[in-house]
């Protein structure tokens, strides 16, 4: 009986020691990741001339193994409500995959040039700022009705809807019409440098999920014109070319995806 007690105590001691070592290792790994993310956020702030630290996340576990291998699995950078010369405020996002740190420190500095296997970047403009730009102060943007009602989502992997038939709901007072209406709007990208967002109203929407308001024939052209516009200056983070535009929630999003590129942090904000 005494021997069993001694063995039990020994096993408990060993288990406690192993647990302490594991917890300590995880804590060190977690702490190193937090510090590297803090330094990355400060570097992006400095390089991109932001007035605040963006959100920066280095994903994947364990972190220290990635740092030792000089290659991060994935990095996410987000900056909300950044000053924009055209729409007033916009949010910027970037997701980087397979980041090569061979020529950079694991603590990424503001001057780092980072080869990445795949880069995604987005400009996000909320309904409020799009509405102010258009002169429709109560504007609400939603994904196309057919996609909102589709259990599969009908969206890209990033959660962005298609670019056709977005639902714009608001009151086009400048068109001489004071009733709230819902309009189908198509999005496109134009311009020699692919930085102008084109919004083209195609018709009035009625029924469930809309303002359910018809527009008289003599007002239709003016109302459609009020919901159509061009928004220049939409340069994606890191200069990526747009590959999709649509809605997510009540925001308009322009997204670019590219593979095998080298990014510089001072190109995170280009507008």
Describe this structure in words.
The chain is of the alpha+beta class. It has one domain. It has five helices and eleven strands. A hairpin with a 3-residue loop joins strand 2 and strand 3. 35% of the residues are buried. The model is unreliable at 149-154 (pLDDT under 50). InterPro entries: DUF2993 (IPR021373).
Q: Order of strands across the widest beta sheet?
A: 1-2-3-4-11-10
For the secondary structure, the number of strands is: 11
Tertiary shape: elongated
The helix fraction, in percent, is 25-40%
Mean pLDDT: 90
Low-confidence stretches: 149-154
* Number of structural units classed as domains: 1
Tally the helices.
5
Let me know the largest β-sheet. Answer: 6 strands, antiparallel
Give the structural class. Answer: alpha+beta
Query: Beta-strand percentage?
Result: 35-45%
**Radius of gyration, in angstroms, nearest whole number:** 25 Å
InterPro entries: DUF2993
Protein name: DUF2993 domain-containing protein
Region (Disordered): 145-166
Biased composition (Low complexity): 151-165
